[in-house]
Structures are given as C-alpha cells and as structure tokens.
Amino acid sequence: MTNMLEINSLTKTYGGNVILNGISLTMNQGESLGIIGESGSGKSTLSRVITGLDNIDEGEVVFQGISLDPKKGKSLKKLRRHVQIVFQDPSSSLNPKLPVWKSAIEPLENYTDAMPAYLQHVKHNKKSMAEVLFNKVGLSKDLLERYPHQLSGGQKQRVAIARGISLQPDLLICDEPTSSLDVSIQAQILNLLKELKRDLNMSYLFISHDLAAVQFMCDKIAVLKDGTILDMFRTEEIFSETRHEYTKKLVSIALQNAL
Ligand SMILES: Nc1ncnc2c1ncn2[C@@H]1O[C@H](COP(=O)(O)OP(=O)(O)O)[C@@H](O)[C@H]1O
Ligand SMILES: [Mg+2]
User: Fold this and answer.
1) What separation in Å is there between the alpha carbon of 215 and the centre of ligand 2?
2) Residue ranges of the ABC transporter domain (predicted)?
C-alpha cells in the first residue's frame, strides 16, 4: 500500500535563506502526525508547501501516489479537495464581509461533486448544509447569520473547522489551531478536533509548539528545528532514552509547565 503522504528531501528557500532543509516524512491514511517546533522553525512553511499554497525548491511531495507539482493544475485540484487546512488565526481566515455560514460551506461550492455522505440528505439547501456542519462543530444554528466580528475567537475557530471538514478531507492540516485562543477554550477545541478525527476518519497533520497538545492529538511526532527534522517517533516513545537531546529538553520544559 502506498503512503497517503510522502515528502522526500524537501527544501524550501526564501530569498536565499534555507527555511526547510531536506525534510522527509511519510503518513499513512488514518494516521496523525504532530509537528512540534519553536516559533520560526518552519512549521507554517511546511503546511503551505504541502497544500500547494507555496512552491518548493527541491524534493517532492506525493499525495495519494500523485506528485504535487505546482505547475500541474490537475494534481493541485485533487489535492485541495482531499487536503484542507485550519489556520492559527480564525479572524484572518474568515471573510469579514460574509455571514459565517457562507464561509463554512465555501469549499463545497468549489467541489460540487465532492459532497460527503453526512451532507447528502440536505444537499439541495446550502443553508441546511451549513446547519449540519455547525452542529458537527458544536455551534448553535442561531449563529449562522452572524458576521465574524460578532463571534468569539473560539466560535470563529469552530467555523473555520466546519469549513475544514466540509469536504471530509483525508488529511486536515491544523496549523497551531488553538494558539490564538484563551487557555480555557483551547482544550474544548482540541477535544472537538479529536472527536471529529474519529467520527470522519481523517488524518491530521497537527502543528503546534505545545507538546502536550501534540501528544494528545497524534500517533507520531516529528521535531522540527531550523527547518530540519531532528527526531521522529511514535507518541508512546516520547520518554524513551533514545530521544534526541533537543526533544528531551522540550519534554522537560513541558513537564515543568504542567506543574
Ligand atoms: N513569505 C516569506 N518570505 C520570507 N521569509 C519567510 C516567509 N514565510 C516565512 N519566512 C521565514 O521562514 C522562517 C520560518 O517561518 P514559519 O514557517 O512561519 O515558522 P513557524 O510557523 O514555525 O513559526 C522564518 O524565519 C520566517 O521569517
Ligand atoms: Mg507558524
């Protein structure tokens, strides 16, 4: 069986600076991979090149057996349908001029033949589709007509998640999905994401600088520093003696913060 996602020796530069340096990793369908790294380590750049939002300099990204080449529109279109992304800041990812229900169903308008099974019974009514999606992410239908500025940060992120799951992607990339939220809301959003992953059988590429969150969400963890993967392991191996020194440092900081 081929891997769902395979990244081989990926290099990305900006203005001559190497931002991602020889990244290789694989993900199987249904598996979730966490990327942990400090600010500036290249996490968001990685998520952008995987989704084709940005081009790569060297190496390749292969999704479901098809190489992602930004010059070939067809593979990009397939990729976009099966890979969705939830960004850190829901305020900048929702259109301020649209009632939020329209943002939630936006991907469905671009891929009219990609309706997931759980929306089939309402497929003739866009607003009903939004209502089903809102229900899935724990939002009241009373909020459908609101504009982004009329929602809390947590509610806006739920709308962004509703949009992210609207095509039932095989892979949902979550780039620090709780970092902009109040601490009290973060756990609720993590729990929601975990529930949805099980319910919809999605894989996550879950990006964070919060080790506890990555541990909670993922089967495997990759440690990114200065654009290089220093360490990669199954989550249950996180305390192993064989971990990279840098990983051990992250673990000890996380343990101290938890006290
Ligand atoms: N569009 C860009 N142009 C130039 N440099 C960039 C661009 N995007 C990111 N960078 C640089 O790449 C590095 C990694 O950024 P980023 O991927 O956002 O890290 P992270 O998400 O881990 O905080 C940073 O040094 C950042 O300044
Ligand atoms: Mg980032």
Assistant:
1) 18
2) 5-251
Give the range of the structural domain holding residue 190, as residue numbers without chain letter. 5-258
CB of residue 19 inside a 6 A radius of ligand 1: yes
Mind listing the pLDDT tens digit for each residue in 224-241?
A: 999 999 999 999 999 999
Question: How far away, in angstroms, is 167 Cα from ligand 2 center?
Answer: 24
Q: Identify the nearest ligand to the CA of 88 by its number.
A: 2
> Where residue 244 sits, what CATH number does that domain have?
3.40.50.300
Neighbours of ion ligand 2 (CB under 5 A): 43-44
Ligand nearest the Cα of residue 179 is 2
Beta pairing partners, 208: 36
Tens digits of per-residue pLDDT, 165-221?
Answer: 999 999 999 999 999 999 999 999 999 999 999 999 999 999 999 999 999 999 999
Domains held by the chain: number: 1
CB-ligand 1 contact for 43 (6 Å cutoff): yes
